[in-house]
Amino acid sequence: xxxxxxxxxxxxxxxxxxxxxxxxxxxxxxxxxxxxxxxxxxxxxxxxxxxxxxxxxxxxxxxxxxxxxxxxxxxxxxxxxxxxxxxxxxxxxxxxxxx
Length: 99
What we know:
Blueprint (H helix, E strand, L loop, with lengths): L5 H10 L9 E9 L7 E8 L5 E7 L5 H19 L6 E7 L2
Parallel strand pairs: 3-4
Antiparallel strand pairs: 1-2, 2-3
């Protein structure tokens, strides 16, 4: 396991989005998604794919944290749909483990 933090991994990937998917453009790092019901969250990397779809990227330091990432991605997708009024066909979810 590397000594890199999730923040360092996030910052590297945000500058090198082609490592995740070619043609993506960064919208924001740590994009805040409010929720008046108390389940707010921060998207690690929020980007736009070359096909125009929004991409939510969740970063975890290990494959062992993948279950947590899936839960977070599901929450972020629901918040994105509620806050931005977008359809499921307008976004994609990506998990970016370190190894």
